[in-house]
Design goal:
Protein name: Transcriptional regulator
Structural class: alpha+beta
CATH superfamily of the largest domain: 3H domain
Order of helices and strands: HHHEEEHEEHEH
Number of helices: 6
Number of strands: 6
Number of domains: 2
CATH architecture of the largest domain: 2-Layer Sandwich
GO molecular function, one term: metal ion binding
Domain Helix-turn-helix type: 9-61
Keywords: Metal-binding, Nickel
Helix content: 40-55%
Shape: elongated
Organism: Vescimonas coprocola
CATH class of the largest domain: Alpha Beta
Strand order of the largest sheet: 3-6-4-5
């Protein structure tokens, strides 16, 4: 059996990411494809350069889902209220695509999140232990891009965030 070419390997990476709902780490991809992690990182860079939409998250690489309604909301809360905000979002069936803050020097800073469940939120909060959220740079004000299953879920989420005092309107 002949070895996989670099082009075939990149196609396989794209297939694996497309088929997965959850992020896949470079280490997992390297083990699956029998190459080094560094080769995978380079392949991801080449796939992106070729126009493939791949997002790097703290849990690995993901191809963002294109289904659902994309909405952007402005929120404000303390660092201690982060879990409550994120749980409300995923409990309404929305995926928290990213968090965005407006920095006075650097402009817009965006961090990919791709949180779709309470398990995702739990894992995110564990990684945040001891770290400050981006919103600390802006007095708690930040934006989230959300992918919601429908307008009803989005409206329900807005109502919950208003009740908790998290929504900036």
């Amino acid at each position: 059996m002949s070895a996989m070419t670099a082009s075939e390997r990149r196609q396989q990476i794209a297939r694996l990411l497309s088929a997965s709902q959850a992020p896949i780490s470079a280490t997992t991809l390297s083990q699956e494809l029998g190459v080094s992690r560094q080769i995978i990182v380079g392949d991801i860079a080449l796939l992106r350069a070729a126009g493939q939409e791949i997002t790097a998250t703290a849990r690995g690489y993901v191809i963002p889902a294109q289904n659902g309604l994309l909405r952007r909301i402005a929120c404000i809360h303390s660092a201690e209220e982060t879990r409550d905000e994120l749980d409300a979002m995923v409990d309404c069936g929305c995926t928290v695509v990213d968090v965005i803050v407006e920095h006075p020097v650097y402009g817009q800073l965006t961090a990919p999140l791709h949180l779709s469940s309470r398990l995702d939120v739990d894992q995110f909060m564990k990684r945040m232990d001891g770290a400050a959220p981006l919103s600390q740079l802006t007095g708690g004000v930040h934006l989230h891009t959300l992918s919601c299953p429908d307008e009803t879920a989005y409206e329900h989420l807005l109502q919950l965030l208003r009740q908790r005092g998290f929504l900036v309107e």
